[in-house]
Amino acid sequence: MSLTLPSTDSNTSPARKQVLVFRELPPDQLARLTAVHDVTVADPRKPDERARFDAALAQAHGLIGSSFPIDAAVLGRAPRLQVVSSISVGVDNYALDVLQSRGIMLCHTPGVLDETVADSVFALLMATSRRLVELSQLVREGRWTKNIGEDLFGSDVHGKTLGLLGFGRIGQAVARRAALGFGMPVMYHARRPVDLATQAPELQGKAIHTPLPALLAQSDFVVAMLPLSDSTRGMVNAELFAAMKPGAIFINGGRGATVVEQDLLHALDHGPLRAAGLDVFATEPLPLASPLRTHPRVTPLPHIGSATHDTRHAMAALATTNLLQALAGERPAAVYNTLEPVQNLFRDRIGVQSG
User: Fold this and answer.
1) DSSP state, residue 178
2) Which residues are annotated as catalytic?
3) Cα(121)–Cα(51) distance, rounded to whole angstroms?
4) Rounded CA separation 16/34 (Å)
5) Residue 187's CB: how many other CB atoms inside 10 A?
6) d(CA 313, CA 315)
7) pLDDT of residue 11
8) pTM
9) How far apart are CA 184 and CA 161, in angstroms?
């Protein structure tokens, strides 16, 4: 339910700001906010809370939440807004150009979810290659009446070649699991080679920056860990699928809209793909009518990459810290957009709007 949480301090400080929480926060993080600011909690995804969300926008100095589009129309109803703190790494739900033009700081939560997402991606790779979901269902439905035949065999993971599209922190964490844990040669494609000596010394000699055609032709598993931007939207298309090794398995743990889903389906039905494991989709939740939902060689997950209690709490804690620091005129722990120093950015507006 939506609620407004005012200060318990009768001597309200002029530095207190109006904060709008648009996705549920853990109680301890909500308490951190209410200790120093006036907080409205309203989830715009819930019909009975949308009006309250819209009303709170007019006074909000700070927003915190995730998984809801903060587009130009929303920002247009928030004239006092100084900072948006996203409980996510990805920022494709935000109108970046509007935020930049208005000098509104955008913060996010990199780092704290890297290992958890890498766990999920590698688990999806394992499940897809060994057909774990399909075979578990065989047992659940009482169809396991004899030893399985070759038609239900999976494929090995250890020793096979992994190709990574994107090689940021999460991609490097996936590479560690593959190279160090499963003896997999790792190739990656990125705009420029990563300095492994300083960023990931354990991967020196084990992860090789590779031209895209060679990576696609040689990889037994192609894992996309791409952020969504104008340059990556629809990047994984028919041309890339056609260039993949026959029998390859495709995994997407980045953003759904980086893949042309119709091209993926064609590659599954007509070659060269053996299977696909997907944690993300162009439209989420995945529509019931989507062929990806029931395709026999697709292992779909409901975007669970960072969905553990520990990691989601750590993300919320970092997002709360970002917001508190920004509203205090300090440099937040994790700023996404590049703006002027906070003390200059907020100086005039804090003076005008502190009342």
Assistant:
1) I
2) 255, 284, 303
3) 38
4) 10
5) 23
6) 5
7) 41
8) 0.87
9) 5
